[in-house]
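Need residues for this backbone.
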């Protein structure tokens, strides 16, 4: 992978690669569009052993399914589950085995048909120092110590972006590949556990991702597999998702008031991330639409180099799977993102990878967002391998494989996007492009989109 590091030599390498790669930023003809001919290995079965796991210690007090998410610039939310009652306390410090600091949170449970969840604990810790490793334990339990590293307060900043995880052998490969290289935060555009009404799969998913999700903040928005609404019996949608994966929707400059959509800043405000909800009302006049207008209006592009947005159902898609399912949301919100010069939009839902050019209203536009579909985490429904032919000119690269993406915001002007294919048990860089900040592109300065 050609990625710029935090050193001067890394920056020099980045500029060299930028010069060599610049042609791929704005493809001008259909001849530059690529449908990968890669032949994928056969599918792998569900990781059934994970579905059967339970509390390893069997005492009901040992924390499990531990994960963290960012709350503001210097705090972290720690979430964990115990089978039995336990205190909702997190003890932490910068030395292993020594926890001079602590925070007490709250405990909730939920029921779904005949299922009763464990005790879901939640505590916010901080203030924390940036780029610092903290060691922590949950519920004062000495059996398991965890650690995480806080994100940096300045650029460069490294994201992993991947959707539609599930819990199969391919999911395990994806997680292994993610862990093999350093990153600061994971962004997930929906479809986590593929529990699909079987609530114990939420527990097995929590155990599966715990090694990574307890060590770096995971930030996400919901997908269709999180809805889990049953007429009469379970009329409340997103019941398990909202209980288990609480995001910072009530903090920041423009709190949304809804766990299904929110925004946050990283790297001292150099990057603004918007998590949109594909499965709650987004039409003009809706709460989400009004919030998005406020949120984008509050972004100072003189301070914020990059603005990213995540949705579940892609707004642009040349795969036959889920064709057109994001169109209504695009019609309602695309002009807002275009007017605010959002730099890139990442989506899931389609179980394949596809990168588009910068697009607005169906046409290439150098001042529009770059669109990327990464619904390729490894789910049990398999790959979406049927594409529309001929490949649209706005579609730059597409391939039906599992994998994950990495976005390194190198500085205030450039970010490097790289997609890593799951090639059997190896990760292979299959697509790469430099993204230039629209805030620093002279022709794109100002708000020119229709609002």
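Answer:
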């Amino acid at each position: 992978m050609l990625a710029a590091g935090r050193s001067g030599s890394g920056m020099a390498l980045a500029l060299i690669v930028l010069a060599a790669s610049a042609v791929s930023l704005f493809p001008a003809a259909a001849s530059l569009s690529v449908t990968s001919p890669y032949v994928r290995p056969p599918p792998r079965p569900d990781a059934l052993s994970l579905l059967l796991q339970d509390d390893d210690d069997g005492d009901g007090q040992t924390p499990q399914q531990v994960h963290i998410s960012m709350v503001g610039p210097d705090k972290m939310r720690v979430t964990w589950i115990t089978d039995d009652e336990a205190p909702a306390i997190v003890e932490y410090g910068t030395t292993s085995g020594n926890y001079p600091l602590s925070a007490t949170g709250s405990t909730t449970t939920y029921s779904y048909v005949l299922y009763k969840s464990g005790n879901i604990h939640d505590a916010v810790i901080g203030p924390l120092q940036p780029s610092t490793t903290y060691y922590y334990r949950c519920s004062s339990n000495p059996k398991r110590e965890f650690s995480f590293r806080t994100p940096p307060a300045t650029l460069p900043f490294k994201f992993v972006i991947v959707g539609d995880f599930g819990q199969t052998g391919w999911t395990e490969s994806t997680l292994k590949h993610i862990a093999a290289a350093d990153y600061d935060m994971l962004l997930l555009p929906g479809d986590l556990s593929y529990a699909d009404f079987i609530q114990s799969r939420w527990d097995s998913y929590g155990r599966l991702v715990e090694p990574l999700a307890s060590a770096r903040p995971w930030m996400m928005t919901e997908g269709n597999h999180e809805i889990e609404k049953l007429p009469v019996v379970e009329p409340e949608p997103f019941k398990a998702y909202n209980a288990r994966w609480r995001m910072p929707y009530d903090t920041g400059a423009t709190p949304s008031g809804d766990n299904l959509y929110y925004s946050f800043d990283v790297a001292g405000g150099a990057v603004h991330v918007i998590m949109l909800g594909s499965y709650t009302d987004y039409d003009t006049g809706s709460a989400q639409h009004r919030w998005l207008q406020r949120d984008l209006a509050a972004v100072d592009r003189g301070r914020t180099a990059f603005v990213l947005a995540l949705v579940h159902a892609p707004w642009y898609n040349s795969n036959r799977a889920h064709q057109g399912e994001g169109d209504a949301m695009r019609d309602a919100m695309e002009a807002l993102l275009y007017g605010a010069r959002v730099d890139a939009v990442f989506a899931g839902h389609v179980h394949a990878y596809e990168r588009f050019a910068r697009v607005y209203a169906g046409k290439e536009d150098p001042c529009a967002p770059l669109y990327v579909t990464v619904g390729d985490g490894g789910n049990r429904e398999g790959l979406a391998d049927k594409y529309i032919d001929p490949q649209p000119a706005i579609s730059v690269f597409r391939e039906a494989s599992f994998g994950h993406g990495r976005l390194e915001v190198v500085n205030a002007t450039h970010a490097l996007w790289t997609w890593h294919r799951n090639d059997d048990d190896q990760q292979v860089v299959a697509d790469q492009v430099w993204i230039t900040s629209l805030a620093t592109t002279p022709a794109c300065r100002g708000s020119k989109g229709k609002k």
